Amino acid sequence: MIPGSQSIYWSALAWALLSLPLALAADWIDYPSSGYATMTHYTLPENFVAACGCTADSTHYPTAAMSQMAYGSSTAYGPGCGRCFNITLADAFTSNPKFYPPEDERSSVVIKVTDLCPLGGNGWCSATANKPNAGGAYINFDLAWPSSSIPDSFFPSNVTLYGFTDFGVWNVSYQEVDCVQDWEGGKSAAALGSVPNGGSVCCPANPSGNDTCPSFSDAHGIP
Ligand SMILES: *[C@@H]1O[C@H](CO)[C@@H](O)[C@H](O)[C@H]1NC(C)=O
Ligand SMILES: *[C@@H]1O[C@H](CO)[C@@H](O)[C@H](O)[C@H]1NC(C)=O
Ligand SMILES: *[C@@H]1O[C@H](CO)[C@@H](O)[C@H](O)[C@H]1NC(C)=O
């Protein structure tokens, strides 16, 4: 018997087992830094610490959840956490007829990603690398709205004029931007970073280069 052959065998086995989570790792969406996306909205209570673990104060400024396969984790934090995007309304394509707001009502808002919008069924957050959502988009931003930091007039809202109070899902353009410079909470130290509890949190103040979050689900072998 060759000395050490057994340990070679065991290390090969261990390697195979350790590699399993990588083989199961989801096919995350590699999106461009600007483009089109869809946007929905959801209720996020003020001071709530969402999936990334960004500080409670981040909710005092515009935030959004990002669709799972672009966010990069199926639970807790992912590479999407903390990123800031300038989002501009383009058209509301689920209203009938499709609604194109006048130029001066195409509001923009810079949001920070603080939450995960889970993939599920045919929902708006269910795009995969191979299959966009029903709006043809690979990213959905789920805006925390209403929000004390976003005027109610953000969405065109003249019911007399438009016949809608809520146009449903929007087609938006987005550009990734610098959080400190462009996000409304960027000058507030309390709104930046993660909650200091040492748990499963990751919320870079201004993600860039290698200061981004790893995928929690990949790191823990969770599909
Ligand atoms: C979103 O807007 C762009 C630019 O007008 C357009 O090319 C695209 O088809 C629109 N998508 C939807 C779902 O309306
Ligand atoms: C809403 O639209 C109606 C009809 O065009 C107009 O008369 C009214 O002034 C508008 N209201 C506001 C608050 O802009
Ligand atoms: C966001 O986009 C709008 C529309 O293109 C633009 O007017 C505004 O300057 C942008 N804001 C930032 C911070 O990039």
Helix content: 10-25%
**Order of secondary-structure elements:** HEEHEEEHEHH
* Overall number of strands: 6
Q: What is the averaged pLDDT score?
A: 89
Topology:
Blueprint: H1 5-24, E1 34-42, E2 63-67, H2 68-71, E3 84-92, E4 108-117, E5 140-144, H3 159-162, E6 170-177, H4 179-182, H5 216-219
Parallel strand pairs: 1-5, 2-4
Antiparallel strand pairs: 1-6, 2-5, 3-4, 3-6
The chain binds 2-acetamido-2-deoxy-beta-D-glucopyranose (NAG) (3 copies).
The site of one 2-acetamido-2-deoxy-beta-D-glucopyranose has 6 residues, from β3 and β4.
Note down, in words, how this protein is organized.
The chain has 223 residues and is of the alpha/beta class. The protein has a single domain (29-211), classed as Barwin-like endoglucanases, CATH 2.40.40.10. 16% of the residues lie in helices and 21% in strands. It contains five helices and six strands. It has helices at residues 5-24, 68-71, 159-162, 179-182, 216-219; strands at 34-42, 63-67, 84-92, 108-117, 140-144, 170-177. It has a six-stranded mixed β-barrel. It is globular. Mean pLDDT is 89; it is low at 1-24. The structure holds 2-acetamido-2-deoxy-beta-D-glucopyranose (NAG) (3 copies). One 2-acetamido-2-deoxy-beta-D-glucopyranose binds at residues 86, 88, 108, 110, 177, 182.
